[in-house]
Amino acid sequence: MQLLLTRPDDWHLHLRDGAAMADVLAHSARVFARAVVMPNLRPPVTTAAAAAAYRRRILDALPRAAGFQPLMTLYLTDLTPVDEIAAAVAGGVVVGVKLYPAGATTNSDAGVTDIERVRPVLEAMAELGLPLLVHGEVVDPEVDIFDRERAFIDRVLDPLLHSVPGLRLVFEHITTGDAVRWVLEAPARVAATITPHHLLYDRNAIFAGGISPHLYCLPVLKRERHREALLWAATSGSPRFFLGTDSAPHARSTKEAAHGCAGIFSAHAALELCAEAFEDAGALGALQGFTSQHGADFYGLPRNADTVTLVREPWTVPAAFAFGDGEVVPLRAGETVRWRLAGTSVSR
Ligand code: NCD
Ligand code: ZN
Fold it and tell me: Is 329 part of any domain?
């Protein structure tokens, strides 16, 4: 069996920097035409000039003729000047501004401590049509880690939606039925990304056969009924949901550690894994909308003209891939994936 799809885009990707970036970039570029590149480097990408320089480093590291386009983001801090928004829009390479609640995830310590501090920036974004990309978890230690997304909706996101009219919002890597419901009830200026791993796994997978640091990410995997809600949303055909892999590579040594980092590397098989999830749901017909259409439509970008072909032919994922001077353990390492990328045709 074969599937011919419009070439997909990844609306949420961590590429890191330097030699590690060059290693992971090829995995995304082999299949995706474009990716929204997250700004949580050290130091974070907080200015339009830094985003343009990062984009240049990515382009320079690309395999030849990859036909891959990085779409850049700014990292919002309490101190982001309002002027930076106009500069970002004028520069033409920034497609969104990322809100990390300070302390919520990897390299988020420079993030926003109180949404009130960035209100003028958000108003400028609403005016210029630049979307806010939201990591939706509260950092309140009183809130159970499995409830942090739901609490964020109630405490931050819903009030924000109503208090900044016109602000375009992408609720990133949603993990709960609560988020699905909230997005569906929100106006059309709101959308959400969903990762392959949240479509395929619930939180039990982290503990099956012994604790697996390679299935630890943020927001953490949730219970089965939430996975089912996400799968329903992704396969529903609703244009409000699209693929953001959140592929987030960390060196093996920093994952297999006493305080292992959060992040799952999936770029090597992201589309293939989505095909599995959609096949299991009996919804392969909805795959192309989710991977290749809804995101471009939301961001107001043309859909890709190229195509990719998937064949239903199991292959075994390598145990590790090169990652700078270390290695990264990919999702499904040593296990099989049911779909394989057979080719990409570039229309010129
Ligand atoms: C991401 C990372 O490692 O940069 N980690 C993750 O678990 N998803 C950060 C993020 O998107 O939360
Ligand atoms: Zn992320």
Answer: no
